[in-house]
Amino acid sequence: MSTISFSPSSHTWLLTTPHTSYGLQLDATDAPCHLHWGVPLTLGQVEALPRTYLPRRADSFSGRRVPEELAVDGADRYGTAGLQVRFADGTRALEWAYLRHEITEDEQGASLTLRMRDRHYPLAISLHYRVHHDSDVIERHLTLEHSGDGEAVEVLRADSAGWVLPERSDYRIGHVVGGWAAETQSRRGGLPWGETQFTSRRGITSHQANPWVMLDAGDADEQHGQVWSAALAWSGSWRITVQRDTENRVRMTGGFGHDGVSWRLEPGEIFETPVFAGLYNRGGFGATSRAWHDYILRHVLPHPQDVRPVLYNSWEATGFDLDEAGQRKLAALAATLGVELFVMDDGWFGGRTSETAGLGDWTPNPERFPEGLSPLIEEVHRLGMAFGLWVEPEMVNPDSDLYRAHPDWVLHFPNRRRTELRNQLVLNFARPDVARWAHGWLDRLVAEHGIDFLKWDMNRTFSEAGWPEHGTDGQADRLWIDHVRNVYAIIDRLRTDHPNLRIEGCTGGGGRVDLGMLRRVDQVWPSDNTDALDRLTIQDGFTRLYPARVMSAWVTDSPNPVTGRSVPLRFRCHAAMAGVMAVGGSLTEWNAEELQELAEQVERYKEIRDTVQLGTRHRLTEPSDSDGLTAVQYMSVNETETVVFAWRLSRPIDRKPIRIRLVASDPRSLYRDRESGREYEGALLIEFGLPLELAPHDYASTLTILDRVIDSATP
Ligand code: GLA
């Protein structure tokens, strides 16, 4: 159960989640201040906590040290401001005044809204908190309202929330870094003193960083220790700043947008920020990841219980060189492998025979599909598969009918070049006419062809982000936020109108993976790099926050088209089976033996996919482990099926048998290997490990499925 309680005498609020507490209080100046985020405490205990943040010595240089729930700009505050505004007379400092609060409870959880305002100017500020009965994740966001009728208020920064951590001496920070074809590389290191900023200014979440952080006091490991983490639900530019001061006080503030971009709030207008969710967990990094996975399954994904189908995607097989006959051949082969969803990728429309032309012209290419898409779709259905299609709605090639008709529809500034990336420009989705056009053709396409699945791609970052129509009235900057909002709105509407439609989010790989996108897509493409070895690292970073059930993973050709590396098929399959397994190879070039092996692995995957997609995921090694061994364990929801994958990069020097200690097993149960029939006692699996039969060569891998033999080992 989660609850929210309030003490009127001290103006203290306590949010209680199943395993944590979160307390806040108004100070003498009405500033909402943080008291506690951690182990469960009562309202009385939180009220009585010593105010550790009060100045230790009075000096005229340190400034305010009050840990506000949202650090505003003004007075003697010198940290990063989460809320910065400029009023019409030039005043920038903000002063809090408390109005009231609202607590509501429902079947799912409870919500708190703190209604605040500026002490003088017409700005209402509401801090929103939401707790769920079945999760320790606390969702927070902010709304601002221009409550007057005078001039606009310029919002320079509106973070969703600030999170304050308790004083500890040795904070570390975990996050991911990356780039195209190398997304979600997990990093953890000492938290610098100063202000550490994680950000995207690219208009998308980005390949370079992902909007979440995990902090620990230097002593957490995979299975133990306190971890404080936060993740932002936004798919455009964003910023999270983590500040550590000389006295080891740590606070973070995060939200959408980046510096220099503002929003002119008009009288009566309400401005709502995305959710910046936070989680405190005492079970180390492993339990923290699992708590996020669980939250995403319960409260973020649109169809969490749907088991994701095994799909085939034609991109790596054909590139832009596709036509109906070629797709039919691939579909026929895919069907023999046990594939359930056939997805045709880029190149089916307009003059799109290379990346230089045709984007924006969303009608089937008449030379490649003389009778339109229907014959292929019917054939795919006849083969017993669902049909999916690649689209990239937010983009246009200058060499396209769309651009020739609407050169003003793209992001651009007057008197500036239009920077092309991958020969394309970004359509200004903030424009209502552009958003209407995009929704119109997508809706028709899905309806006319009964399309089951869209791969929604987005293949470049923003540049020259101007909107000349609003160049002088101060509203042009809205495009950064409204672009994302309109992408969300179009997807939401498509889903409502076509309830069976499923969507994969893709952004040249994993450039737009975040809690905002996951609220409206069923799975995401983590990277254009399908090399199985690189994928192990990418998947490790990806699953630090996001669950395996949204992680598309194709088995592709060897040597790999991106890295040139040759990796055995079994290893490639095992890497893909640890997520949402799919196939993306040039199947017409595979021999009968390879196709047979792949079909067997697909069948195997179907046996275990409920456990991989819906169960819990446990890292058994760190990617940096010696021996180049990576292992993960999945446990089914009812805890009867255990799935263990192990991959080893290179042949070991010695021949000693390898064992991997399992973590999620029940020490009193007996487990039986489904293939060999060998039995293992849970206690021994935990203490001494599962023996792994890894072949003595490079790129060896194993998949072990253990069934719990109920009660056998109960003393
Ligand atoms: C992006 C995607 C790929 C593929 C191509 C098509 O790079 O990530 O999977 O769809 O676009 O142009």
Give a description of the structure:
- By secondary structure, this protein is of the alpha+beta class.
- It contains 13 helices and 39 strands.
- Strands 6, 7, 8, 9, 12, 13, 15, 16, 20 and 21 form a ten-stranded antiparallel beta sheet that branches. An eight-stranded parallel beta sheet has the order 29-28-27-24-23-22-31-30.
- Strand 1 and strand 2 form a beta hairpin.
- It is globular.
- The mean pLDDT is 96.
- Bound molecules: alpha-D-galactopyranose.
Structure described in brief:
With 715 residues, this protein is an alpha+beta fold. The protein is built from 13 helices and 39 strands.
Major beta sheet summary: 10 strands, antiparallel
Bound molecules: alpha-D-galactopyranose
Q: What class do helices, strands and sheet pairing give?
A: alpha+beta
Report strand %.
25-35%
Point out poorly predicted stretches.
Answer: none
Helix content: 10-25%
For the termini, the CA-CA separation is 33 Å
Q: Overall mean pLDDT score?
A: 96
Computed over alpha carbons, the radius of gyration is 27 Å
**Count of separate DSSP helical elements:** 13
Shape annotation? globular
Total beta-strand segments: 39
